Amino acid sequence: MINYLFIYPEIIISAGLCIIIIIDLFISANYKSISYYLIQIILAYCVYHIFSYSEFMNTNTSNLYDTSTFSNIFKVFIILILLLIFYYTSIFLKYFNKYKTEYFVISLFGLLGMMIMISSQHLLLLYLGIELLSLSLYSIIAFNKNSLFSSEAAVKYYILGAISSGFLLFGISLIYGLTGSLFYHEIIEQLSLLNVNPLENDMRILGLVFALIFIFISLSFKFGAAPFHMWIPDVYHGSMITTTLMLSTIPKIAVFIILIKLLGSVFSSLYIFWIDMLLILSILSLLIGNIIAISQKNIKRMLAYSTIANIGFIFLGISMGSIDSYKAAMFYTLTYVITTIGAFGLLSQLIYKNKPIEDIQELSGLSRNQPFPAFLLMVIMLSYIGIPPFIGFHAKLFIIQSLVHSEYIALGIFAVLMTVIGSYYYLRVIKVIYFDNESEELKSTSSYIVTGLYVIILILLGIFPDILGQLSGYSIANLFNT
Length: 482
Fold this sequence. Notes:
Blueprint: H1 8-25, H2 33-52, H3 54-57, H4 69-95, H5 101-119, H6 123-141, H7 148-179, H8 184-193, H9 202-223, H10 231-238, H11 241-247, H12 250-266, H13 271-293, H14 299-319, H15 323-347, E1 350-352, E2 355-356, H16 366-369, H17 371-385, H18 391-405, H19 409-435, E3 442-444, H20 449-463, H21 466-480
Antiparallel strand pairs: 1-2, 1-3
Helix pairs in contact: 1-2, 1-5, 2-4, 4-5, 4-11, 5-6, 5-12, 6-7, 7-9, 7-10, 9-12, 10-14, 11-15, 12-15, 13-14, 13-19, 14-15, 14-18, 15-17, 15-18, 15-20, 15-21, 17-19, 17-20, 18-19, 18-20
């Protein structure tokens, strides 16, 4: 008998979706914001439930759906992030008269997909979660129907996403054919048996490596690692800035968790095969991301290539294959997401000639016009670079330390050089803000109270990095039961 109380958070989200869709039909156009507040209440209640019943959910022994401490930590994390994203999105959509409750409802479907991805203990369930997230993202990318760029971005992402899903399904089918199961624990058992007599299993190992390659290609596409990054700049550019905010944050956490589970646990015995793939992708991501970002004039495209470079750092951490390197990679992922929320959230509150910010040059003289948001944006850019005492410094330091401890000294030096190159395009934003001529066309859509408090938290996390460090260590320890 299945105990559905273990998946109560998912039930809350699903039931909330149905209720909001029905209620919104009977609300007049002037009061549509009621639906937005109801959605925020549902998300807050979901967080409360996970906190209140975490001990009970931790007793779940299901081999299909994981509700352990590790999964619950990241469900809470992505829900809290979505609360903040919805805050910025509601302000943005209302200012430009594009507010539709459907945008938030579709985003909740994406949240549901990510929760399924995080808790999945079965490859087919994982695929369903990824597809639910992807279908939601296709819709919100195309939300701005008046923009050709938005439609183009949605079509590109849809086509490439379909190809990526095909790779994932093919890899899963190979795994099933070679192991006879799609459950994580049964795949681990089957792989452990290969070590008994490896000479008789050479062809089977080769098949598993091919399966892993196909799965890894699909997940690398979802993550945005080079050379599977071709969709990121166009999709970030074509989407509304609040959609870009969502695309660049919580899906990255969900995909990172899948990678840690699959590579660090399910396919850990095939480490010698996937380490080289990860290292190649990380080096390519760092090179392509940092070098091409230098020539970008559009701030969303610049941050898109910055994302690719940051993914390179995350892959470097995962590729070391040790518990400490997984902690460093998780710390870096959380740091990247937290910093990116601040960057896109702040940019979504700025307008130039009554349009959202697009080009970096449109931020000219922001320090003279609005010194407070200029300071906030400078702090975020310095954190991206990795200047102490900001949190980005500790993230890069931990990755480089893990490389040195694993005796990859050359890679550590390469990572430092890429950090130096990457600092150019972040410093260019600061230069435009503080040293270029003031623009009278640059205005804001709302106050910066929430963003200011958020950046203060960002600064405090840099001064006390142990807060995120302990969270990363605790979650990894729970995942690997160490």
